[in-house]
Amino acid sequence: MFRRKILIFLFMFLFSLVNLPAKGNLNISNSASNMQTTSKFYESLLKDDNEAFLTLFLTQMPKGGDLHHHFSGSIYAETYLDWISKKGWYIDKCTLHIVKDKNGGKCELLTPAQVLQDNLVYRKLLSAWSDKDFKNHYHEQAAPDANFFDTFSYFGAISHEYIARGLKILKNRALKENLSYIETMIGRVYVNKKDYFNKSQIANYDHLLVVAKTQKDVDKILEKITKIYLKNKKFNTTVFDYISKLNSYHLGIDDSHFLMRFQTSAVRVLDPLSVFTNLLAGYEAAKKSPLIVGVNILAPENNPVALADYTLHMRMYNYLLRLYPKVHRALHAGELTIGMVRPKNLTFHIRQAVEIARAERIGHGVDLPYEDHPLALLKEMKKKVAVEINFTSNQFILGVKGDQHPYLIYSMYGVPIVICTDDSGVSRDNLSHEYLILASRYHPTYARVKKYVYNSIKYSFLNQKEKVKLQKDLDVRFQIFEKKMAMLYKKLLLQK
Ligand SMILES: [Zn+2]
After folding, report:
1. Does the model's pTM come out above 0.85?
2. Where are the domains of the chain?
3. Backbone phi, psi, residue 463, to 5°
4. pLDDT in tens, 436-448
5. Could you give the CA distance from residue 135 to residue 202 in angstroms, rounded to a whole number?
6. Quick one: which of 241, 360, 436, 471 has the most CB atoms within 10 Å?
7. 197 CA distance to ligand 1 centroid (A)?
8. What spacing in Å lies between the alpha carbon of 263 and ligand 1's midpoint?
9. What is the overall mean pLDDT for the chain?
10. Closest Cα partner for 81 from 161, 147, 187?
């Protein structure tokens, strides 16, 4: 009898072992079925044009990272007013600019609290400090691209006063939208060239750089400038100070489910020596700090200086790539469209960013349809270069939307795509809204939307170990999300 019991026990034990993989499979098949049901739910929302529910769906959906956004342009005007109040500064009622001194300004000075009480002034301020109400009603306004870029001159005086606070706001916003990573363009490492060169030297270097015809010519000049900067103690101290400030702003941001990294940048509308100075200092900072993962170039691409020096800037990147092979490169390129510049300026910006600057990611890439040999370029990008798509920003600044947007071409040719916000404070939106535009306009499959989310980790500038960690975290987030959505969809079907 006892032996029989033991035999039954052994049999059951062995049976349970045989069944173990089946149990595992059950979980996997559950996840697979949740994913399929979630996908059906998503398709049904698209079919019904149910934008409100689609917003709910995409807000809850894990979105990985936002790889293209600017710190100051991502903070809302309301927050800046709080900060101005904290500083005890004012708003000039006529110009709507910040005034730090109570004896300054052109007109009556208002405290932020007084601005909030005067609805007319408050609404005027919001429309000048962001894109708010630009299209809602007629009012005196600048051209859209000017309105957009001018906003920075309004909040510029306050935007860098509370960086640590601002980063926490961006993190909290990201967490509420189910993001696990953001790569923020935080501003340039400011080095004043006048501390290193006299007036005639500056004029000479600017002239030599402008007339340099080849990469070799540019390299020679840049080598000289680089030597002067790198051997100077002050230059290295400036870079070191920038890093230590950034470290202090970043304190307490990273945790086991969220990471934040930074890109520095150069401003492409400045003279050649200033642009290179920004870039070199940015590369040095990125080399020395694991928090700084890339160096970008920004400001309006249709600016006359930006247009004239475009190839020169790409050559600066090419030179720096050889000097700093480990520093990543994402570049604003092709943020242009027909009518904005002469047609010839639409034909080469993305290509040069890919081939000369060796960009790993292209920011915007909107003028692609006008590029020379676009199909060859797409083939090249498909292999190694991701494109950062910013729908709202492109629609506002360039007027490019719907079927005009090259998203359609990039997706057709398999170029890696990431969905980003650019300046959500100015545009007054968030990443979920960018996904909403993607889904409601172009109806990509759920699998494709998920791919873009995973791309935002894959094409980030994190190191391999961090990427693996965040990819695993994303797997778990999607399992939870899809389980919830599958349950919700089944419940909704039962109610029908
Ligand atoms: Zn941008």
Report:
1. yes
2. 80-152, 163-477
3. -80, 170
4. 999 999 999 999 9
5. 44
6. 436
7. 31
8. 11
9. 92
10. 161
Q: List, for residues 72-117, the tens digit of each pLDDT value.
A: 999 999 999 999 999 999 999 999 999 999 988 889 999 999 999 9
The CATH number corresponding to 163-477 among 3.30.70.2190, 3.30.450.40, 3.40.50.150, 3.20.20.140 equals 3.20.20.140
First to last CA, the chain: 58
Instruction: Read off the pLDDT of residues 174-223 as tens digits, 9 standing for 90 and up.
Output: 999 999 999 999 989 999 999 999 999 999 999 999 999 999 999 999 99
Q: How far is the CA of 207 from the centre of ligand 1 (A)?
A: 29
Ligand 1 center from residue 421 Cα (angstroms): 8
**Spacing, Cα 467 to ligand 1 middle (Å):** 23
Residues 70 and 298 sit within 8 Å (Cβ to Cβ):
yes
User: Which residues touch 180 (CB under 8 Å, ≥6 apart)?
Assistant: 62, 64, 65, 174, 257, 258, 259, 457, 470, 473, 474, 477
The token duo for 82 is: 């709080």
Cα distance between residue 220 and residue 122, in whole Å: 53
Query: If you measure from the C-alpha of residue 216 to the centroid of ligand 1, how many angstroms do you get, rounded to a whole number?
Result: 30
For residue 216, the Cα-to-chain-centroid distance in whole angstroms is 33
- Find out whether 304 and 345 touch, Cβ atoms under 8 Å: no
